Amino acid sequence: MFIMWFANFFVAASATMVLPFLSLFIETFGNYSDSYVQRWSGFIFGITFLTAFLVSPIWGRIGDKYGYKPILILTGSGIATSILLMSFVESVQGLFILRMFMGLVTGFIPTSMALISSQTPKEIAGRTLGTLQTGTVSGGLLGPLLGGMLADSFGFTYTFFITAGVIYLAVLLVAFGIKEKKKQPKSDKEKSYSRKEVLAYIVQKPMLLKIMLLSLLIQAANFSIQPLLTLYVGELTGAANLALLAGFAFSATGFGNLLASRNWGKLGDKIGYEKVIVLLMFLSSLLFIPQALSTSLWQLVLFRFLFGMVVGGLIPCMTAYIRSAAPLSMQGEVLGYNVSFRFLGNVIGPAMGGLISSFYSISTVFYVTSFIFLCSGIILLYGITHPQRAEKTVESSN
């Protein structure tokens, strides 16, 4: 578990670590206008998640068929190689292509979740996946802070070298430290599913489909404020060391994740994952409002920390629910589709936040995000309290 936690942390961090210096790195390629740099910064950051959205189910399906460990080694090596090559890139288009390739091999995290899920008894799945998820979420949230610190200390080139080296180390630890126990299917029905059968299974399970669609909404809502957080900190403080102070705001959410994710998973094991998910959605909605009303940095950091404690339980509980709802031989592919929805949310969120803030204000983005979490919680609560109606709807559509 420690090996997978370590690997997931650095793989997730590698996807977001370029946030603090991406525009600065692009400027080193030539004398470009501000609009050109901003436009390509968005393209280069978003392309990784867009390609990952397209290929995640494919990696899950391959893992279901041939085993998860080989996929972990292949995708981890691909991510490390793409980051290493970024240190040699000399054009904006070259960086774009490498980030796109990085998205193609970003099947590491959903595959690791499927591996741990397949090796874990169902009664402790939420707790175990919650522990693993702290690595993934914390890496994604602390990635910008780590990237900024490394770039300031060593420069852009050595930042890519160091990050690639750490991920290569994680791949070696997986290769020699992880043993995958192959589980034999228990019945003929679990032996093999075509892609069409997997999709049909998802559609015929209303609660499962809701969970996956809500993954998109939650991720879009969460990422809507990420690119704007530095600007918001600037509005609150007006300080010169803006990057460092914004790093605190980013990191607060990650530290909250570290403290609470495992406990939410344990609660889900006891009372049901869908109930915990509803609770967390309502709490997340509530905690976005004081962030919009913050008048000082310490208030923002405090409520970002509390939000981190809450939102950190969503993904492990969703993953554990999917694991309990999907047959063993299709779990990897189903989890892959769920991760695809999340990656799509990563693309939609920043664009949505940018549009809202350009027409209104950054504070408005917090209110809209709060409303999305509230609606998501209501939709899921309705699905829990009216399961028969949802099933009848699916049957009539078939």
From TrEMBL:
This is MFS family permease. Residues 1-388 form the Major facilitator superfamily (MFS) profile domain. It is found in: Cell membrane. It comes from Sutcliffiella tianshenii. Its main location: membrane. Pfam families: MFS_1 (PF07690). The chain crosses the membrane at residues 7-26, 38-59, 71-89, 95-116, 128-150, 156-178, 198-218, 238-260, 272-289, 301-322, 343-360, 366-384. It comes from the Bacteria. Keywords: Cell membrane, Membrane, Transmembrane, Transmembrane helix, Transport. It is a multi-pass membrane protein.
